[in-house]
Amino acid sequence: MSEQKIRVGVIGANVNYGWGLRAHLPAILALPEFELAAVCTSRPETAAASKERFGARLAFHDYHEMVECPDVDLVAVVVRVPHHHEMTLAALNAGKHVFTEWPLGANLAQAKEMADLARAKGVRTLAGMQRRCSPLYLRVKELVEEGYIGDVVSCHLTVMGTGGTSRTSDRAWMGDVANGANTMSISFGHAIDALTMCVGDFSEVSGVVSTQIDSWLLTDTDSHVDVTSPDNIIVSGRLASGGVVSAHVASQPVMGSGQRLEVYGRHGTLVVDSGESRLMSALAGESALEELPIPERLAWVPADVPDGPAFNVAQMYRRFGEAIRSGDRAEPDFDDAVKLHELIDAIRRASETGARQSVG
Questions:
Q1: Is residue 2 predicted with pLDDT exceeding 60?
Q2: Is the peptide bond before 332 cis (omega within 30 degrees of 0)?
Q3: Between β-strands 6-11 and 34-40, what pairing exists: parallel, antiparallel or unpaired?
Q4: Cβ-Cβ contacts under 8 Å for 187 (sequence gap 6 or more)
Q5: Any residues with CB less than 8 A from the CB of 79 and at least 6 apart, and which?
Q6: What's the whole-number mean pLDDT along residues 298-327?
Q7: Rounded CA gap, 283 and 265, in Å?
Q8: Quick one: three-class SS letters along the chain?
Q9: Closest by alpha carbon to 251, among 211, 208, 224, 218?
Q10: pLDDT digits (tens, 9 = 90+) for 28-87
Q11: pLDDT digits (tens, 9 = 90+) for 7-21
């Protein structure tokens, strides 16, 4: 592809709420190699408002029209998970490069169909597994691969979010496991993907997948809705390298304690504490964990890219742009997303059957 800007069309560019507003649009606007060519929302008035606010050249309220537009090179699908499949297929069939948020599909079968079609069309894809472009996790991966802590012996992951027992009715759809947007697919998916990026793939897993809060109060209608989406996921497993892993990811009713990843090697320990804000280590003979710096070279984006959700997404767009221009594979692409869907399905089977499951 020429050195002209890559023209992006965003499906899910609402000016009032959503991941597109908080992450994708600021990221695209901050990167000089991209142009926000088009925005798409479900209604003409919101599409027009988005066009005006973000300076897009075109506005659409029908995604079919946007993906067929010759002035769009790359389509970003940033909407609720149940719509990922149909919108992504439409963009792929139009011959566009596609960045679809994680979870790629509402289930493994949808994800496989999207990955197969992308491969057949010969376009570049990216799946929104943002921690793979986080400077902190990239540094953990480097240190493990360099042997800084020696062979990995064990890992422990905890993510305790706060979900509560009530919602407004516009969020009730997430209570249905079939819609594919829940603690297991999102919180657990992102966290376990970061772990495997850093220490390698699982070879086998056991697990408990549970729905502890099986009803939500809908506060705006004073009614209740049944919940089938899991809110507690507990996994024990073995890595292909031989190390063992324990993980508990949950959405708790009151005051979750946050996230922590611990990686124990033969010669040292690495700890990701306070979400993604701090990396600490201790080597053999040292008496306390000390904070490690994150090299500036792992931040690929301009200094004025906003901190927070937009930063890692901008890192992903920069990586994606390089892949589109070179024709090389982007990472994480749809095939990587299928692999993560397969891991999640293996953990679900382990819970349902009570039997350890092989992975890979």
A1: no
A2: yes
A3: parallel
A4: 159, 161, 249, 251
A5: 11, 12, 87, 101
A6: 95
A7: 9
A8: CCCCCEEEEEECCCCCCCHHHHHHHHHHHHCCCEEEEEEECCCHHHHHHHHHHHCCCEEECCHHHHHHCCCCCEEEECCCHHHHHHHHHHHHHCCCEEEEECCCCCCHHHHHHHHHHHHHHCCCEEEECHHHHCHHHHHHHHHHHHCCCCCEEEEEEEEEEECCCEECHHHHHHHCHHHCCCHHHHHHHHHHHHHHHHHCCEEEEEEEEECCCCEEEECCCCEEEECCCCCEEEEEEEECCCCEEEEEEEEECCCCCEEEEEEEECCEEEEEECCCCEEEEEECCCCCCEECCCCHHHCCCCCCCCCCHHHHHHHHHHHHHHHHHHCCCCCCCHHHHHHHHHHHHHHHHHHHHCCCEECC
A9: 211
A10: 999 999 999 999 999 999 999 999 999 999 999 999 999 999 999 999 999 999 999 999
A11: 999 999 999 999 999
For Cα atoms 209, 210, 214, give the angle at the middle one, nearest 5 degrees.
Answer: 150
Question: Are 199 and 192 a contacting pair, CB within 8 Å?
Answer: no
Phi first, then psi, for residue 74 (nearest 5°) are -130, 130
- Strand 232-239 to strand 202-210: parallel, antiparallel, or no bridges (unpaired)? antiparallel
> What's the pLDDT at 277?
83
- What's the rounded Cα separation, in Å, for the pair 21 and 14? 6
- Alpha carbons 348 and 246: distance in angstroms, whole number: 15
Is the separation of the CB atoms in 150 and 266 below 8 Å? yes
CA-to-CA distance for 256 and 117, rounded, in angstroms?
40
Distance (Å, rounded) from C-alpha 156 to C-alpha 260? 8
The torsion angle over the Cα atoms of residues 82, 86, 91 and 93, rounded to 10 degrees, is 150
pLDDT digits (tens, 9 = 90+) for 316-328: 999 999 999 999 9
Residue 78 corresponds to which tokens in the numbers above?
């940033």
pLDDT of 107 reads 97
